[in-house]
Write a structure and sequence with these properties.
With 330 residues, the chain is an alpha/beta fold. It has two domains: 171 residues, 3-Layer(aba) Sandwich (Peroxisomal Thiolase, Chain A, domain 1), CATH 3.40.47.10; 148 residues, Peroxisomal Thiolase, Chain A, domain 1 (3-Layer(aba) Sandwich), CATH 3.40.47.10. Helix content is 32%, strand content 25%. It has eleven helices and 13 strands. It has a five-stranded mixed sheet with strand order 1-7-6-4-5, sandwiched between helices. Helix 3 crosses helix 4. The chain starts with a strand and ends in a 6-residue tail after the last strand. Bound molecules: oxa(dethia)-CoA. Oxa(dethia)-CoA binds next to helix 2, helix 6 and helix 8.
Length: 330
């Protein structure tokens, strides 16, 4: 049977510090009811200032490895998807590999904004399917709190910090990543981006004063594109694989807004109990959302379960992955 890349371990990490809607009420003109009704978020986690994205990623990977017989030195490749790297360069993945002691691994970062984890998972899959690597760690990690202006009520209510990691290994029993579809529309860049810090608008004092180092989002426009983009691409992957809603064990959606998740689930014909949702506790952790869902739900999954992963985000970049779960609960 064809060699596929299967997820054989999942790990996660969220910081201890909690930022609740009540806390935000004291910081900006907002209220708990508005945030819950418009987004589904109740609280999010915030990383301590003396720690960085690589620290969360290392914790998540250690957690994943602790569920296997492997150590860091057994990893062939580490791919980190993030929009909040420790530095502009070098790659955060390299720092992660060093902190872990993954001496045999090479590593690189990927950035596809909120869809980054799916892009990295698909990329890692190629290395396993081709036979080039046996053990690929894919980690999605973001310290969104450094990207947020906590005086901007349009964005500060949405985001949180966290990391999730999955180990990919070859599988010849028909389990693992089966199919995927991705799409981008670069003309959407203006609706969700960080203006300064790159080569187009290098950092200046004036740009910092104008708060251009923080997330800018035209929420209404992104929402409109996200609802149709995520539902369309998920439906396409279901149809191509002749999957009915009964065949799907869980939808694993990017956690940006509960209303976007609900719209995608409705279109896929999936009832709420088949949809992983933890946005109420973590908010939007960007690259962390999907692996953190897998982390929290892993005990409820059986080998052979059909999962549909779906994301939409800045770029615009969006996608969906269909996989057959390969782990039985311990
Ligand atoms: O993960 C990356 C992809 N990102 C997304 O998918 C996010 C997509 N967008 C969204 O999730 C939603 O657009 C938001 C949650 C960001 C905003 O929700 P919305 O229902 O689109 O609200 P809105 O921007 O249309 O604003 C409605 C009203 C406005 O007041 P007026 O103009 O109607 O008087 C806002 O000023 O709500 C006001 N508002 C708030 N009120 C209380 C905006 N933010 C807040 C707030 N608290 N935090």
């Amino acid at each position: 049977m064809k060699t596929r890349a299967a997820i054989t371990a999942v790990g996660g990490y969220v910081p201890e510090k909690v930022l609740t809607n009540a806390d935000l009420e004291k910081m900006v003109d907002t209220n708990d009811q508005w945030i819950r009704e418009r987004t589904g978020i109740e609280e999010r986690r915030i990383l301590d200032e003396d720690r960085a994205t690589s620290d969360m990623a290392v914790e998540a990977i250690k957690d994943a490895l602790s569920r296997t017989a492997y150590g860091p030195e057994d990893l062939d490749l580490i791919i980190c998807s993030t929009v909040s790297p420790d530095f502009v360069y070098p790659a955060t993945a390299n720092i992660i590999a060093d902190k872990l002691g993954a001496k045999q691994a090479w590593s690189f970062d990927m950035n596809a904004a909120c869809s980054g984890f799916l892009y990295a998972l698909r990329t890692g899959t190629q290395f396993v399917e081709s036979g080039m690597h046996q053990r690929v760690m894919v980690v999605g990690a973001d310290t969104m709190s450094i990207r947020i202006d906590y005086e901007d009520r349009n964005t500060c209510i949405l985001f949180g910090d966290g990391a999730g990691a999955v180990l990919l290994e070859p599988n010849t029993d028909g389990l693992g990543i089966i199919d995927s579809e991705f799409a981008v529309d670069g003309s959407g860049a203006q609706y969700l981006y960080q203006k300064t810090g790159g080569s187009k608008y290098p950092v200046t004092e004036e740009r910092i004063r104008n708060k251009e180092q923080f997330v800018y989002q035209d929420g209404r426009t992104v929402f409109r594109y996200a609802v149709s983009g995520m539902a369309d691409i998920t439906e396409l992957v279901m149809k191509r694989n002749q999957l009915s809603s009964e065949d799907v064990a869980f939808l694993v959606p990017h956690q940006a807004n509960k209303r976007i998740i609900d719209a995608t689930a409705r279109r896929a014909g999936l009832p709420p109990e088949k949809v992983m949702v933890n946005i109420q506790r973590y908010g939007n952790t960007t690259n962390g959302t999907i692996p953190l869902c897998l982390w929290e739900w892993q005990d409820q999954l059986q080998a052979g379960d059909n999962l549909l992963l779906a994301a939409f985000g800045g770029g615009f970049a969006w996608g969906s992955i269909y996989l057959k779960w390969a782990i039985n609960p311990a």
